[in-house]
Design brief:
The chain is mostly helical. It has a single domain (about 5-185, about 200-380), classed as Growth Hormone, Chain: A, CATH 1.20.1250.20. The chain is built from 16 helices and no strands. The protein has helices spanning about 5-35, 40-90, 95-110, 115-120, 125-135, 140-150, 160-180, 200, 205-235, 240-255, 255-265, 270-285, 295-320, 325-355, 360-365, 365-394. The longest helix is centred in the N-terminal third of the chain and has 50 residues, at about 40-90. It starts with a helix and ends with a helix.
Length: about 400
């Protein structure tokens, strides 16, 4: 971990503080402002749909201006969108809130590349550990995000308007830290050396599995996490309990980062990702066993650890799917697939929990996890099938 990586880890911590606070409050603010209950998670959906729509623009700014200027632009957008969210909450304008979170998606898509930048700031033999440890810095978001939401909730006499103002200050602090980081220069553009077209990159089995596992694992995590504060409120549990559950969920998401890189280095990404699928299925089993605080707490913690194994493994696996010249378009495609599934899961979360209930939400999470697990098994068996075929030909 060099100086630049430590500073990038600090930015990841502030980014997750922003994200966790958004998740903790957007569904509840949406529930209080939406014309119908099933529309409560549309502001959350707006955040991830905005992220998906921004991936192309982010890829272009990264390629044209480099990591630093593009990341700075994302932080400026974060400040402006948080101020707009605060105004929407104060004026009780549901659709303005949805638009504001849509704009905030640009910051999410931009900061979502911090994990790839971590691999570029480390030596080749330490890429797995660098990605894992920078992601682990998100642990701070699990501690400060729910606490920030709870403490600033009624700061200005309007529910959660103060939380949005606090997030503006978080983005401003991140902008200050960004000025001290030195990123590698933008790879020079050489005629005829631009790499393969995106259509060829995304057809690789390793890319398909990395993108699919990241998107499906993140989608399931988002589906259950977004619904949890709403379900807990419907069960009569106070917001402080929901904040506690989200805190431990995010701790589960990022605390394993201190050793996930070592596990990937030793066993490879596919076995670690397989364990992530199993942990997500265990979360569903716990969630279906009851709706007391302990079920929410244990289930969401397992969900967080499972997400960490799947997402860190997918990020590491994807690094072998593209060259430095192909970096921006490949990473943009990876993030687009992830955010597209997140947008769908965010909307489905509100609809299912308000029309079908918590149990159906959990049952609906099983098929995507089985699909992700099947993809991992398919990729793992490919070398074995190739070796068997070669032996048969000889």
């Amino acid at each position: 971990m060099n100086r630049n990586l430590w500073l990038l880890a600090a930015l990841q911590a502030l980014f997750l503080t922003n994200n966790v606070t958004f998740i903790a409050i957007n569904g509840l603010v949406g529930l209080s402002l939406a014309p119908y209950g099933w529309m409560a998670t549309i502001p959350v959906m707006g955040y991830v749909v905005g992220s998906a729509l921004s991936t192309g623009a982010v890829a272009r700014t990264q390629a044209a201006f480099g990591r630093k200027r593009s990341f700075q632009l994302g932080l400026v957008v974060a400040m402006l969108s948080c101020l707009l969210c605060a105004y929407a909450a104060a004026s009780r304008n549901f659709w303005l809130l949805c638009f504001s979170t849509l704009v905030a998606g640009y910051y999410n898509a931009n900061a979502g590349l911090y994990r790839f930048a971590a691999a570029e700031l480390a030596s080749p033999e330490a890429r797995e550990k660098a990605v894992s440890l920078v992601l682990a810095a998100g642990l701070a978001g699990g501690v400060f995000g729910p606490a920030l939401a709870a403490r600033s909730r009624d700061m200005f006499g309007v529910p959660f308007a103060g939380a949005y103002i606090a997030l503006t200050a978080v983005a401003l602090l991140a902008l200050g830290i960004m000025t001290f980081i030195r990123f590698p220069p933008v790879p020079p553009k050489v005629a005829g050396a631009g790499g393969r077209p995106l259509s060829q990159i995304v057809r690789q089995p390793v890319f398909i599995v990395a993108a699919g596992a990241a998107a499906l694992g993140y989608g399931v995590m988002n589906l259950l996490m977004v619904a949890t504060p709403i379900v807990m409120q419907q069960c009569g549990l106070p917001f402080s309990d929901a904040a506690l559950v989200l805190e431990w969920h995010v701790i589960g998401m990022f605390a394993p980062g201190f050793f996930t890189g070592h596990l990937i280095k030793r066993f490879g990404p596919l076995p670690v990702m397989g364990v992530g699928v199993v942990l997500n299925l265990a979360c569903i089993a716990v969630a279906l066993s009851g709706i007391q605080l302990q079920q929410f707490l244990v289930g969401l913690t397992l969900l967080g650890v499972g997400w960490n194994f799947l997402f860190t493994g997918s990020t590491t696996l994807s690094l072998s799917a593209y060259t430095p010249q192909e970096r921006d378009r490949a990473q943009g495609a990876l993030n687009f697939f992830t955010f597209a599934v997140l947008g769908l899961s965010s909307f489905a979360s509100g609809v299912l929990v308000n029309t079908r209930g918590w149990d159906w939400l959990n049952y609906g999470s099983i098929p995507p996890l089985l699909l992700a697990g099947g993809g991992l098994l398919w990729l793992a068996l490919r070398p074995a099938r190739g070796a068997a075929a070669a032996q048969a030909r000889s």
